[in-house]
Design goal:
Number of strands: 2
Radius of gyration: 18 Å
Shape: globular
Order of helices and strands: EEHHHHHHH
Low-confidence stretches: 206-213
Structural class: mainly alpha
């Protein structure tokens, strides 16, 4: 635990902690694997949450608690993708667009969850240094992971909405390294969204009569 919380290097006058560095690297790998629709997405996501949980446990209870939620959703995602494999020609999950009912449910859950978590953070200041943006990013991440677990193209849009707040928030608070990582997240999200979007359109096109399935 002491090793995870020790300094790895200094960049942009920012002291990079090993746990933050490892967590960010695993996060980038997770997005790349998600783009490829690989089942390994979820074990890597779980490992990222576990690393940060170990780093935070004992002195940052709120941050450690958030990682528990991330790990639980990662287990759900692994279970959901594992049972949905083989339904496409390449043996991976088939991306799809969410229904309007699903979109409304996710938006409602995101809004209600952000308010509830932000109020919790405000009631217990030790849980967060910036309650509303922190709650937005946390709840947005969980909603994005849920949509990803269900194979919805909209999960990429949810990640973009998280980045819209995450990038300026990190730069404004002096976390330039984390801010640049979020910029890379944004680029991966755009490429991944294009790939899933095109695949979902191909999956929805009816096969020509007489053509091989």
């Amino acid at each position: 635990m002491n090793w995870l919380n020790s300094e790895a290097f200094v960049m942009f006058d920012q002291h990079i902690i090993r746990s933050d560095m490892i967590g960010n690297i695993l996060g980038l790998i997770t997005l790349a694997l998600g783009w490829r629709r690989s089942l390994l997405t979820w074990p890597v996501q779980f490992l990222s949450g576990l690393v940060l949980f170990v780093a935070f446990y004992g002195h940052l209870a709120g941050s450690a608690g958030k990682q528990v939620v991330v790990m639980v959703v990662a287990l759900y995602g692994w279970w959901q993708w594992n049972r949905s494999r083989g339904r496409s020609a390449d043996g991976q999950i088939t991306p799809r667009f969410a229904t309007w009912a699903e979109r409304a449910a996710m938006l409602g859950a995101a809004a209600a969850g952000t308010v509830a978590v932000a109020l919790l953070f405000k009631a217990h200041p030790s849980l967060s240094w910036d309650p509303w943006p922190d709650a937005y990013i946390f709840v947005g991440t969980v909603v994005a992971m849920y949509a990803q677990a269900r194979g919805m193209v909209e999960f990429w849009i949810a990640w973009l909405l998280v980045d819209v707040v995450g990038v300026p928030l990190n730069f404004a608070n002096g976390y330039a390294f984390s801010g640049f990582v979020y910029v890379i997240y944004g680029a991966l999200v755009l490429w991944g969204m294009r790939d899933w979007w095109l695949r979902s359109r191909k999956a929805s096109q009816p096969a020509l009569e007489g053509a091989p399935a």
